[in-house]
Amino acid sequence: MATKVATKLRGKKMVRKEISTDTQIKRAIREVVQADKAVSYPIAGYKGLEVRIRPHKEGADATSDFRHRYTHPITGKRPYMTLGQYPALSLADARQYHNDNMQLLAKGTDPIEHREGKKQKELTERQNTLNHFINEWRDIQASKNLKKRTIKNLEELVRPIEKQLGHMKVTDITPSLVIKFINSIQKTNTYKGLRVRTLLKSILQIAKAHMVIEYNPASDLQGTLKRHTSKHRPALSNDVTAFAKLLNEIEQLDDASQLYNKRILQLLSLTFTRVGDLCAMRWTDIHWLKKQWQFKPQKSGNRGDMVTSLVIPLAPQALAILKQMQSLTGDSDYVFHNARRKKEPYHHPQAINKVLNSDLMNNGQGYKDIHSPHGFRSTAKTMLMERLGYDELITELALGHRMLNAYGTAYNRMTGLEQRAKMMNDWANYLDDIKAGKFDNVIHADFKQQAQKQS
């Protein structure tokens, strides 16, 4: 029969007795709350196992913990090991933990040291999973102050990595596993698969930097993945008659329903900038006296071949369009202000694609796979060189590209604004001419002679 120990609590006589059922624990909790003093009750049949009940200061409840007091197999000390809180840890579970501890002690192993070692191992394993390094990679990206669009694109790439490989230890990720993973993505999108592989390589490189792995399994996979064949965006670069037709169709768009689309398409043909930059054009970036548009291209932070800021000389035809827009949106931040878009309150670039591909254009057939908003860039470059005689250097500068080719690094700081201003005016006048049906103003450029001058 259980030994009874008399204890006085607040003038009341309470008995600390061994417990063998849940009902007895609950009754003991009520008694301790009433007495408002902590008491430990031994668990019947399990030496050293007890439930410690501590009333809350408010006196309305109590906290109950299972503890195991044992003798250390080496030092002989008598530590307490907290097993868990009741009722989250049941009486049956506490008894099982006690049995487990006794088995460890029989082998000369201290239960507390064993538990801490197990926790440390689990922590180390969690820190060695790919998810751990994905989170570290995210922290690095957050420190770069990236644009929202860039962050969104990166998250789309990291999502399949996180879903399929995130739970794995990086030491278990092999080149063959990476190849299988990337091939599964390339079944539907070859280019995306290659981009995911590049991102995975960057994440695993962090693990390598921490010396968790000695070799990056996403490296040196040439020949094992599908190659991506780049497809140029459609453009009417070599058909001046068809391009003139497109320009006239833009002119005939309705000002009432297609005002923004019409003006943006007109400016795209005159400035040949990227459609995203043009839709996000700000009034503060327009310098009327200098006749210039100065801005930071949206892709400047992601492309090593793009300048960080760009100045576009504005021809009189472009300035006239902006004057028309000034009377409409001059009080707004953006030239093509759209109050319905809260985060980016300007005209959506996708709308330009839609109108080009719609039945409003090309005799109801649209220009899908024939000419795109980006196509104005390649068309302008081709015709400026082949029909107006401008060299590659000046056209590349106009496109906002860094000169990293045979011209040398000295040209990186060159702006060529004076020459480009003349070129933009010549280009605007040339567009007016071909819209009017004048196609005889072709200058046959002597590229060999120009190359000799450059050297």
UniProtKB/TrEMBL annotation:
Keywords annotated in UniProt: DNA integration, DNA recombination, DNA-binding
GO MF, one example: DNA binding
Annotated Tyr recombinase domain residues: 231-424
Pfam families: Arm-DNA-bind_3, Phage_int_M, Phage_integrase
InterPro entries given in the database record: CB, DNA_brk_join_enz, Integrase-like_cat_sf, Integrase_catalytic, Integrase_DNA-bd_sf, Integrase_DNA_bind_dom, Integrase_recombinase_N, Phage_int_M
GO terms of biological process kind: DNA integration; DNA recombination
Family: Belongs to the 'phage' integrase family.
Protein name listed in UniProt: Integrase
